[in-house]
């Protein structure tokens, strides 16, 4: 236990030159922009999206019954509880979750908490295996957990930092992609409204979908600004 606590202690943040930072950003762009690769990395973004719903539910006293992740990047997190507030908070945290997680992860790396971020993320992924209710979703979480464990066991602290930075930036980009997609559903593909969290929140609360889209945009925008500010101040 003492060794574990020591390994999670704050360390000197990894040094990153401007050239290496450009490489890291480029690697994140490769993960989150080209469609053939996004087809697969986007599944991890969907996982974080659904975890956002689940964490929001838990924090407001709701019970999480299960989660599903599908190959078309859709998913669901089912929870129950009394009152509309918890349901609204849970429902509103899906799209912003990848940006929030990405920004926090980026901050952790730049402040010397890479090991803590990797450890906590790995524990969350292992616990998620207990609530996944479809085989494909289980495979997505299992692969993510295995990758996290491999980083913990075999990668050097510097390599861990580089990988977490790439994933953090890719999650931020993925969250912006998700926001653009849901806005597109409301403006151009209204036959798909039933897939939109903003529309489901409108049906649940009576608050217009546009208000929820603005909330998603504000949370994602704030996360991106925080992440960019952190990078500029650090490097």
Order of helices and strands: HHHEEHHHHHHH
Q: Order of strands across the biggest sheet?
A: 1-2
Instruction: Give the oligomeric state of the chains in this entry, treating copies of one chain as homo and distinct chains as hetero.
Output: single chain
Work out the helicity level. Answer: over 70%
Report the span from N to C terminus. Answer: 34 Å
* Parts with pLDDT < 50 across at least 5 consecutive residues: none
Radius of gyration of CA atoms, rounded to a whole number? 18 Å
- Annotation, overall tally of beta strands: 2
The averaged pLDDT comes out at 93
Query: What share of the residues does DSSP label as strand, in percent?
Result: 5-15%
Question: What's the topology here?
Answer:
Layout: H1 2-7, H2 18-32, H3 35-59, E1 63-69, E2 75-80, H4 84-92, H5 97-110, H6 114-128, H7 135-154, H8 157-187, H9 197-205, H10 209-234
Antiparallel strand pairs: 1-2
Helix pairs in contact: 2-8, 3-4, 4-9, 5-6, 5-8, 5-10, 6-7, 8-10, 9-10
